[in-house]
Amino acid sequence: MKITKIALGLATVTAIFVTGCTIAQKTYSEESLGLRKVDIYTENSIVPDKTDYTKPAAGASTKIDRAFENAPPMISHDVEGMLPITINNNQCIVCHDPAVAASMGAVPVPLTHFTDLRPQTSLNENGKIVKEGNVVDNTSDLKVPKQKELAHLAGARFNCTQCHAPQSDTKLIVENNFEADFRKDGDNKSSNLIDNINEGVK
Ligand code: HEC
Ligand code: HEC
What we know:
Layout: H1 2-23, H2 91-96, H3 101-104, E1 121-123, E2 129-131, E3 134-136, H4 193-196
Antiparallel strand pairs: 1-2, 2-3
């Protein structure tokens, strides 16, 4: 009986404590929440900063440092008239094809883009996974063999702007404080992925 009484008393104290907290709760205005800083009834009136793409033409632009080691570099020049990329018209390779890049002053498309990174995977008659001719238990091991170099641009790399994007000079609502840790000098200016693509892969 006594135990029940103590338990009840404790419950009452807790209840009072919790209610007390609710009363003292801080309130926030709608305008202080979210990124637009207006209430939801007027948020349609907020116009984002204008998109203002890089203007200097190819050959006259300043390259942008990589965001992190082996990040796809941003397109530093104007792409007016070069897009969209279609099966019959890829202007990017007109200048970036390694065969002509040096004469155009452009950075050549790297060897990774001339490599088939997709392993040949199939099932054998016993239902086992066969990858690159070997029976494996799982397909997560993506070691890239040397012979996967192609004589042409890999199909998966044809649509350049899927990974490389022009940049807009826009006022940021949220600052990005990320700072990349480059392992070697110069890794912020060019890529070395083909040399270390098998890094950490058993
Ligand atoms: C007329 C030649 C030309 C065309 C066409 C062209 N580029 Fe470029 N690109 C250059 C040059 C030259 C540079 C080096 C920076 C400069 O001088 O402006 C460059 C720089 C770049 C860079 C930065 C490389 C780095 O290491 O930082 C990327 C990425 C790029 N271009 C992608 C593209 C893509 C994608 C297209 C197609 C939409 C394209 N380029 C079309 C000539 C060209
Ligand atoms: C699937 C994503 C993807 C596509 C598509 C792609 N790239 Fe890349 N690109 C990358 C990445 C990631 C890197 C950096 C690592 C590396 O070298 O592979 C890179 C690097 C580059 C570089 C810098 C090379 C250097 O030596 O620093 C150039 C130039 C480039 N790409 C041009 C192109 C062009 C032109 C196309 C279209 C023909 C293209 N890329 C398509 C992801 C892509």
